[in-house]
Amino acid sequence: MSGIDKDTGTAWHVPEEDIRAYARGELDPPRLWSADTHLATCAHCRETLAAAADPVALDAGWERLDAELDAPRPRLFESLLLRIGVADHTARLLAAAPVLRRSWLGAVAAVLVMTVAAADSAQSAGAPNVFLALAPLLPLAGVALSYGPVLDPTYEMAVVSPTHGFRLLMIRTLAVLTVVLGLNGIATLALPSYGLRALAWLLPALALTGTGLALTPRLGPVLAPGLVGTVWVTLLAATASSAGPHHGALAPFTPAGQGVAAAVAVLAAGLLYLARDGFDASSPWKPFRGFTRGGTG
């Protein structure tokens, strides 16, 4: 379909009906392959193709090509989410969360390594209290960083996304809890001498995270987890001082304390469900509604 006719020795071109079919995207192989090869070297046929092409469809095609070339390439975590069936906009919002980036994860891992080392050096105390005290705060901080206009650099994108605020919060919370609790679990394995006592952080972690989320619609995404974390540290300090210098497990990590933590976690989950509409950007009583990183609206 291209080049020199071997019988006549004269140059010839793609038939006009084939060029029109090519312009409409209806030319089938092998004619399509021959037309592609010929058009790359024949200016006359390219001019014929330009005259036969629909300018509106051509402009739309260039726009799609430009959009595809300019679209950011998904990174590893986002690609994995897309492969398991997560919607593209949800995967992008998750991948953009600060707490799912290497800097945050590296900081959490470093903190856990230091607390495990401190717990190993103080085994005579009977319980890894430093580790148990810190581990519940990590998921609380992670969830706080994953939502809200002050700490989340993707907050404006999240507000205009086709996702309800509460659903987005739950998706990010699940992702944060999966990652942080997984790191905490790995750190727990490094404390085999304490047995099941090293897992006493789990219920307080769920209780603190749930309470922080339940208070967020009323107090905001910064004050709520900050207040919960302060209460936790104050409680540990009070129980440590009352137990004296040779205490074993602190009160939150005793069987009674674990029961209280479980009850608080269940209560917080119920309150969070009742307050779910407070995470919608259109909520009239949401305390941080209209706030952006640049100021207030």
Overview of this protein structure:
There is one protein chain. It contains 14 helices and no strands. By secondary structure, it is mostly helical. Helix 7 (102-120) runs parallel beside helix 11 (165-189), helix 12 (202-219) packs across helix 13 (223-243) and helix 12 (202-219) packs parallel to helix 14. The longest helix has 25 residues, at 165-189.
Terminal-residue CA separation: 64 Å
Can you write the helix and strand succession as a string? Answer: HHHHHHHHHHHHHH
Task: Please work out how many helical segments DSSP would assign.
Answer: 14
The best one-word shape is elongated
Per DSSP E runs of 2 or more residues, the count of β-strands stands at: 0
Q: What fraction strand?
A: under 5%
| Unreliable segments of 5+ consecutive residues | 4-10, 282-297
Helical fraction equals: 55-70%
Oligomer: single chain
Query: How would you characterize the largest beta sheet?
Result: none
Mean pLDDT: 75
| Cα gyration radius (Å) | 30 Å
Helix-strand category? mainly alpha
